[in-house]
Amino acid sequence: ALGSLCSPWAAPRVGPLPPAPAMVRISKPKTFQAYLDDCHRRYSCAHCRAHLANHDDLISKSFQGSQGRAYLFNSVVNVGCGPAEERVLLTGLHAVADIHCENCKTTLGWKYEQAFESSQKYKEGKYIIELNHMIKDNGWD
């Protein structure tokens, strides 16, 4: 339309410029949560109830976390990984990355990225979740 601001024939703007928009804090977009099958026993985050793992993915209940007992899982969901670093654990030197709940950001345990002793190689790519950060959910009756 003639006289609209988009028209090449619009009159030049006269007067002060409009105020600049206020600083806006840009946050990370919310990630989508994965939901595990309702027919399986599962473990969820104790702090926000986000699903973490199926009981079928449990490898061992005999692990020690930094704050008590922990379970070793083959795979997990709704979990983010920090950077890998070398740590001396009870079973020797490993490269591990802390893992956290993607929903509430609570640190849950760690992921074994690399084991330096041949007897510990089975842990590579597996996840430790400490018991005090998860609850049994669905189908445990």
Automatic annotation (TrEMBL):
Domain called Yippee: residue spans: 41-138
Keywords tagged on the record: Metal-binding, Zinc
Claim: Transcription regulation is one of the keywords in the record: no
Pfam family for this entry, one: Yippee-Mis18
Superkingdom: Eukaryota
GO function terms (MF aspect): metal ion binding
PROSITE patterns: YIPPEE (PS51792)
Family named by the database record: Belongs to the yippee family.
Protein name (Swiss-Prot/TrEMBL): Protein yippee-like
Lineage: Eukaryota, Metazoa, Chordata, Craniata, Vertebrata
Gene transcribed to yield this protein: YPEL
